[in-house]
Amino acid sequence: MHAWRRLDNETRGNGDVIIIVAALEFATQAKRDEAVALTADVQQLTRLEEPGCFDYCFAPDPAEPTRIQVYELWESSECLAAHFEHPYYDRMASLLRGVGMVSSTNQAYLIERGESVYTETGDKKTSFFQD
Question: Rounded to whole angstroms, how far apart are CA atoms 9 and 116?
């Protein structure tokens, strides 16, 4: 099973790691749940087989019954661009359209730095990126 990788300076290297955050809306909770079920295998295959894909998750939002929250993590701009040309991207888009996705809002972010939200002893931090 593919596990999320902590992105430290060594993992990032000189790459431009990209995170994608999105919200997909469906007409009903039943349609949303169908979309999650239908796309599970494509999500897994994308994670395992596409170069530069660290994470690819389309999950039901527990607070909004008609929404899927999307989280993607890519090693570089090149890897993300290649994903858009990959058959798994087309398959995912087709499945989502086929089940009746109503709208999609998405954004890509360039990750320049990362750090834990907790201290080494497990306490909550009160500030971030202060060094």
Answer: 13
Q: Tokens 């899927």 — which residue?
A: 68
Query: Where exactly are the structural domains of the chain?
Result: 9-110
Q: What is the pTM of this model?
A: 0.85
- Helix ranges restricted to H, 1-131: 9-12, 29-49, 77-84, 87-99
Q: Answer yes or no: are the C-beta atoms of 21 and 56 closer than 8 Å.
A: no
Bridge partner list, 38: none
In this structure, what token pair is assigned to residue 54?
């660290």
Radius of gyration of the chain (CA): 16
Amino acid letter, 102: V
Which helix H or strand E contains 60, and what residues bound it? Answer: strand 53-60
Question: What are the tens digits of pLDDT across the range 34-78?
Answer: 999 999 999 999 999 999 999 999 999 999 999 999 999 999 999
Fold of 9-110: Alpha-Beta Plaits (3.30.70)
